[in-house]
Design goal:
This protein is α/β, with parallel strands linked by helices. The chain is built from 15 helices and 17 strands. Strands 7, 8, 9, 10, 11, 12, 13, 14, 15, 16 and 17 form an eleven-stranded mixed sheet that branches. The protein starts with a strand and ends in a 5-residue tail after the last strand.
């Protein structure tokens, strides 16, 4: 039986999971794949640091050259995270004719085109399943199982931290800061949670997925991003009253002849399958022109779910070593970036919550300003707030982003407007 040697860059949460699977299941993987997968070396910063039991300490090295320049190592697995030196190491590995597996979403989102071009030029494989949604086999499905389809849309809950926070706020009526502190205490959120709560993590993942949906590269700056830090318990309560739940939703789709990609808090109907995805779980809903709707659900992060995706990529590469690299994996990351539609091409319904002075004529003023932008109101509530003020909540009929922004700017300038608390997209999933 042929042995395939593997070099592992990083041994943190995910890396230790990969090492554990490759060590504990070596015979099982050999039986399934026909190849013996041998973990040859593991790059770490500190050899003396305590590591999970079961990993041979002789495998550890602090010298990347021991892995990158070892001619017997055929597959490099990068789970160290960050941009540099990970990018430098992978380009060196690819240039040396080594196949690569990475779980690094930020690296692929920022430099995927460069890495895939290098892999294509050097005729090696670059697999990225673990870079998006951990244990959900979404990349391989989009590239292989759905290759006969034109992908029409993708809607995803792809960040477990924000989903945990919004789920707790919905189920328990608690405020954002309180639930965030709990998520940090449980290890679901980082000490600096900015990447998660402001949507950057989801944008990285959506950039990768969007390149598959649009069949062209997409740049991070092209993706509209809004985080969840301004979502209040009042918004959650109003959403329930209107028959919705709020999720941080990643969307890539073609609409009115234009492409759009965005990550933002979104109200979705309570009876939609994505509405029942709670806690740290992820879900992705794909629509193909032939296959229709397909939904993936599972753990989007963590040591073993992500390690599972990494090892699956390793096995796939090992079984294809005698064949030319699979160009399907690279095709959507090469070429010119996709052209997204202009601002007025994106049409949605919107929920808006405004604090105004409680005076006669205020509602009429706001209605007039909305009317000037051809915005009609679907649902309206007005409630007493603190003394002398009222809270005005309304959901619009479909309107372009541009027209809504213009109307909101005018409402904000009214003397009676105290604060515009929230502007949240409403997604009804109507074809």
């Amino acid at each position: 039986m042929q042995t395939v040697k593997i070099g592992l860059l990083g041994c943190g949460t995910v890396g230790s999971g990969v090492a554990r699977l490759l060590t504990e299941k070596v015979n099982e993987y050999a039986r399934r794949s026909g190849y013996r997968l041998e973990l040859s070396k593991i790059l770490v910063r500190d050899r003396d640091r305590s590591r999970p039991a079961g990993i041979d300490p002789d495998l550890f090295t602090t010298d990347p050259a021991e892995i990158l320049e070892d001619e017997e190592i055929q597959i490099i697995v990068e789970v160290m995270g960050g941009i540099d030196p990970a990018r430098e190491y992978l380009l060196q590995a690819i240039g040396s004719g080594k196949h690569v597996v990475t779980a690094n979403k930020a690296l692929i989102a920022r430099h995927g085109q460069e890495l895939f071009e290098a892999a294509s030029e050097n005729e090696v494989s670059l697999y990225i399943e673990a870079s998006v949604a951990g244990g959900l086999p979404i990349i391989q499905t989009l590239k292989r199982s759905l290759v006969a389809n034109q992908l029409l849309s993708l809607h995803g809950i792809i960040n477990g931290t924000t989903n945990y926070i919004l789920s707790a706020m919905t189920d328990e009526g608690r405020e954002f800061q309180e639930v965030l502190a709990e998520a940090q205490a449980k290890g679901y959120a980082e000490a600096d949670p900015t990447d998660d709560i402001e949507g950057y993590d989801a944008v990285y993942k959506l950039a990768i997925l969007s390149s598959l949906v649009f069949e062209q590269p997409i740049q991070l700056k092209q993706i509209h991003r809004v985080g969840i830090s301004r979502i209040a318990s009042q918004d959650i309560a109003y959403a329930k009253q209107f028959g919705y739940v709020i999720k941080l939703l990643a969307i890539a789709k073609q609409e009115n002849g234009h492409f759009q990609a965005r990550v933002s808090p979104t109200m979705i109907p309570v009876d939609h399958p994505l509405a029942s995805v709670n806690g740290v779980y992820n879900a992705i809903l794909i629509k193909g022109d032939a296959a229709g709707d397909i939904m993936f659900y599972g753990q989007g992060a963590g040591s073993m779910p992500t390690a599972s995706a990494v090892v699956s990529d390793i096995i796939n590469i090992a079984t294809e070593l005698e064949n030319p690299p699979n160009t399907l994996m690279a095709s959507n990351h090469l070429g010119d970036p996709v052209n997204l539609g202009p601002p007025d091409s994106v049409v949605n319904r919107y929920y808006v919550r405004v604090l105004t002075e409680d005076k006669s004529g205020v509602l009429g003023q706001i209605g007039t300003l909305l009317g000037r932008e051809d915005i009609s109101v679907h649902t309206l509530l007005q409630r007493k707030a603190d003394p002398g003020n009222a809270e005005l909540v309304f959901i619009t009929h479909p309107v372009s982003d541009q027209k809504l922004r213009q109307a909101i700017a005018q409402i904000r300038q009214l003397e009676t407007t105290q604060e515009i608390y929230s502007i949240i997209r409403v997604e009804d999933f109507v074809e």
